[in-house]
Amino acid sequence: MTEGPLLFQPLKLRDVTLPNRVVVSPMCMYSAQGGLANDFHLVHLGQYALAGTGLIIAEATAVSPEGRISPEDLGLWEDRQIIPLGRVTDFVHAQGGLIGVQLAHAGRKASTYAPWRGRGAVPPERGGWDVIGPDASAYNESFPQPHAMTTEDIAGIVGAFRQAARRAEIAGFDVVEIHAAHGYLLHQFLSPLANSRTDEYGGSFENRTRLVLEVTRAVREVWPHHKPLFVRLSATDWAPGGWDESQTVVLAGLLAREGVDVLDLSSGGLTPEQQITPAPGYQTPFAAQVKAAVPDLTVMTVGMIDTPERAEAILRNGDADLIALARPVLGDPHWVQAAARNLGAEHTLPAPYARGTRTT
C-alpha cells in the first residue's frame, strides 16, 4: 500500500518523472499575436511552476496558421515562434517544474472569435481566413464553411504536426500532446458526424482513425524517445451516430502501440447536437474504461474535479493515473498547495515560496 496521498506520489513517464499527479490542463488564453508567446504566457504558465504543479501543459498551439481557433492563438508553425516559448520553458525549468505543449489544428472550427470578442466566424477584414475540414460541412450556421481537404492537404497536415513537434523540442518542452478532441480537426476525422468522406480517410473505423495514427506516428518519429507523448481524445460525441466510448477503447490500444504514453480523456465539442449533463467527475468513467482495457497506457482524466478529495478518490479507485485541472487552477493558481495541506501531503516548492508553508 502506498503511503500518503496518491495525488502527491511521483509518476515516471519514460525519462521524465512528474513530482505529483496534478496537471494544468491546456487552456486557450487567446492572448498571442502572430502566434507568438509574450509576457502574458510567461506569467500565466510560470505561476503554476511557482506553485509546484506536477506538469503544466500549454494551450492548444497551432501547427499551421489556418489551424488556429482564433487570430490570437499560440503557434509553432514557424521557427520565429520557438524563442518566445523557450522563455517560458526556461522559467518553468528554473523553478524545478515540467511543461508540455498541446499541438493542434482546429479544422472547421478555426477562424472564430475568442469568447469575449464575439461569436462565430471572424471575417477576412478582421483577420479571418479560409478553413478546411474532412468535408465541406460547417460546425453550425455561424461558423466558417470549410473546404473539403484533398489527400495532399492531409499529407501537409501530417507534415505540419511533425515539424511543430521538432520546434517543440527545440523550445525545451518536456511533453508533447496531440490534440484530437473537442471537435477540432483530428476529432473531425474520427467522427462520422463530421466526416462523410468516401476515400481512405472516411467511412470505416480503420479509415476514420487513419489520420490520427499517421499524425501520432510522425510526431513520435521526431519527438525524442526519452520524452513522453500524450494524446487528448474526446471519448464520446454525446450524440447518436457519433464517436463513442467503444471506439475510444479500440483506438487507445492502437495509440499505445504507436508509442503514446498518456491518453488524456475529455469528451464532446464535435456537434452542437450533443447532449451532456455535466456533474463532478462526469468524464472519469471514460478514463476508467480505457485503463481497464489498456493497462499499459497511463490515463489522465479531466472535468469538474473540483476538490483535492475528489481527485484523490479517483486515483485511489484506480480510475485514472493523472488529474488534469482547468477552471480550478484558473480560479486558484496555487490549488496544488492547498491540496497538499488538505490531504496532509509533503509538497516541495521553489525556495522563495517555500516559506509560505511554515506554520510557525
TrEMBL record:
Keywords: Flavoprotein, FMN, NADP, Oxidoreductase. The keyword DNA repair does not apply. CDD domains: OYE_YqiM_FMN. GO terms for molecular function: FMN binding; NADP binding; NADPH dehydrogenase activity. Residues 7-343 form the NADH:flavin oxidoreductase/NADH oxidase N-terminal domain. Gene3D superfamilies: Aldolase class I. It comes from the Bacteria. Its cofactor is FMN. The keyword ATP-binding does not apply. PANTHER family: NADPH DEHYDROGENASE C23G7.10C-RELATED (PTHR43303). This is Oxidoreductase.
